[in-house]
Amino acid sequence: MATERTPCGEARAADAGRHITVYGWVDENRDHGGLTFVDLRDRSGIIQVVFNPGAPEVHQVAQRVRKEWVLKVEGEVRLRGGNVNPRLETGEVELHATACTVLAQARTPPFPINEESDVDERLRLRYRYLDLRRARLQRNLRARARFIGGLRRAMDSLGFIEIETPMMIRATPEGARDYLVPSRITPGRFYALPQSPQLYKQLCMVAGLDRYFQIARCMRDEDLRADRQPEFTQLDVEMSFIDEEDIFAVLETVISRAWQEAGFHGRIATPFPRLSWHEAMDRYGSDKPDTRFGLELQDLTEVARGCGFRVFADAVAKGGVVKGITVRGGADLTRGRIEGELLGVVKTFRARGLAHLWRRESGWAGGIAKFLAPEELDRIGAITGADPGDAVLMVADHAAVVAAALGALRLHLGRERGLYDPDRLDMIWVTEFPMYERDEETGALAPLHHPFTMVHDDDLELLESDPLRVRSRAYDIVLNGREIGSGS
Fold first, then answer.
1. Which of 180, 197, 228, 305 is buried deepest, with most CB atoms within 10 A?
2. Longest dimension (CA), the chain
C-alpha cells in the first residue's frame, strides 16, 4: 500500500508537528545560499517545501530540481511565524523535508505554467497537457464538474430520470449538418452522430417515463465561432403533459440551484424576465440581447418618411426602416471615429452607412442636421430623449439589416464605454420565435428552430396565407447576450 498522501494545498496551522507525504510538480524553486525552497503544486494548491543543508542528501536533490519536475517529499509541517504568505491557502505553514524522491524530470516548458500570461492558442493546444496544469483551467474544470453535479442533484430532486441514449443513430433533420460514421457491416450506409437526442427522448415520453434528462454529448458539423464548436455538452430535458410554463419553472429552479452549488460568482435571480423575439429584435437588434445596459434601438421610421434627407426617405419608401441609438455623453464621438471605426462595425452587417447627429445646447448639429427641418429634428429629439452632449447614431435599410447593424454597434459601444457591470448576471427567456425563415439562396421556407416546433395557437390560420408571420412555441435562454439553451 502506498504511503498515505496529503494534498499539497490542505496543510494548515493545525497540522504543525505532523509528518506528511506530498506529491506534486515543482512550481518554483529558489536557492537562498543555504536553504533551498521549492513550491510544490498539485490540483489542491501549493505548499512551500524547505530543504536544509543539515540534511545533505535531501538538499542535494533539491538543488538540481527544475520547474515541472515531479517530486515525492516527506517531512514535518512547521509554522512560518512572521513569514506568512497571504496569497496561499497553506501560507501559515511550510514543509521541512526529510526525504525527497524525483519521480519524473522535465524539459523547460514552452510557456509559463504558473503565470496568467497571454500564450498563443496554437502553442497551448500543441502542449495541451501542460496548458491543463495552469490554475485557471483547473479551476474551470472543477467548477464545471461542480455545476454538472448540481444539475444532476437538482433534476433528481424534481423527479427526473437520467437516461443515456445511443450515440450512433439514424440521421434526422436538425439545425446543422450531421457527422456521419460509415457502417462496416453494411457498406455504403452510415450512422449519424446526434446533434441532440431528439427522437430518443420523445420515445422515452411515449414509453411513459414522464421526466427524462441527460448530460448529453452532441455533435454538429457547422462552422466554428467563438461560442460554437463541433462537439459540446448540454443538459437535455423532456417532460410529458406540460407546457412552456412548466419547463420555465423547472429550468429556473435547476439552473439557480446548480449555479449556487458550484460557487459561481453572482446570484441567478428567478423568475427570469421574458422578451418575445419581436420585442428583442425591436429593442436590442438581437435575438440574444445583452440586457445589462440600455442603449436600446429607437424607431425613427415615421420621422424619416418623406423627410428632407433623401437616404432616409428613399429607404422607407422601399419598405425599409430607420432606427437609431442615443449615446449618452456621445459628444466625444468625433466624425472621424463615426465614419471610420463605427461605420466599420455596421458595414460588417451589410449596412451601407451610419448617419449621426449631435445634440448641443444650441440645438442639433453635424451629420445630417442640415438636411432635416426643425420640426423633424424636434420629433427625433422627442423619440430619442437626447440631451445636450448626447449623440444619435442611425441606420436606414431593410429591417433585418438595421437590427443586425445597430445591435452589433450597441454591443461595441457598450463594451467600449463601460456601460455594464461585467460581474452582473442577466438571465432572460426569449420566446415566440418565428416558425419559418426564408433561405437566402433558394428562397424556400425552412424552420427557424427545428421541424419539431409547435405553431403558436393564435397563428394557425396564418400557416397557409402568411407563413413568415407565424410564431412558434420555441424559446431560448440567454445569459448576458449569449444563448446558453433552447427548447420548444
1. 197
2. 93
State how beta strands 482-487 and 475-479 pair.
antiparallel
**DSSP-derived 3-state class of residue 480:** coil
Q: Is 315:321 a contact under the CB 8 Å cutoff?
A: yes
Mean pLDDT for 29-40 is: 92
Which parts of 186-295 fold into alpha helices (H)? 198-206, 244-262, 277-284
Q: Could you report the per-residue pLDDT of 220-256, keeping only the tens digit for each?
A: 998 887 777 899 999 999 999 999 999 999 999 999 9
Structural domains of the chain sorted by starting position, each given as residue range(s) with its CATH number in brackets: 8-104 (2.40.50.140), 138-262 (3.30.930.10), 293-419 (3.30.1360.30), 428-487 (no CATH)
- Which amino acid is residue 148, in one-letter code? I
Dihedral of alpha carbons 47, 50, 55, 57, sign: positive
For residue 440, give Cα distances in angstroms to 320, 348, 437, 444, 462: 18, 17, 9, 8, 22
CA 163 to chain centre: 27
SS3 state of residue 27: strand
Q: Residues, the chain, total?
A: 488
Dihedral sign, Cα of residue 336, residue 342, residue 347, residue 351: negative
Count the neighbouring beta carbons within 10 Å of the beta carbon of residue 238. 23
The whole-angstrom separation of Cα 172 and Cα 264 is: 37
Query: For residue 368, what are the contacts with CB-CB under 8 A and spacing of at least 6?
Result: 309, 312, 355, 356, 357, 394
Per-residue pLDDT tens for 300-315?
999 999 999 999 999 9
Instruction: Using DSSP bridges, classify how beta strands 427-431 and 274-276 pair: parallel, antiparallel or unpaired.
Output: parallel
Long-range contacts of 262-269 (CB under 8 A, 24+ apart): 262/143, 262/146, 262/147, 262/150, 263/143, 263/146, 264/143, 264/147, 265/423, 266/423, 266/424, 266/425, 267/425, 268/425, 268/427, 269/425, 269/427
* Residue that is written with C-alpha cell 509554522 in the block: 79
**86 preceded by cis ω (within 30°)?**
no
The whole-angstrom separation of Cα 67 and Cα 39 is 9
Residue pair 93/12 in contact (Cβ under 8 Å)? The answer is yes
Strands (DSSP E) contained in 301-375 are 321-327, 355-360, 363-365
Radius of gyration of the chain from its Cα atoms, rounded to whole angstroms: 30
Q: b/e string for 399-419 if b means 16 or more Cβ within 10 A?
A: eebbbbbbbbbbbebbeebeb
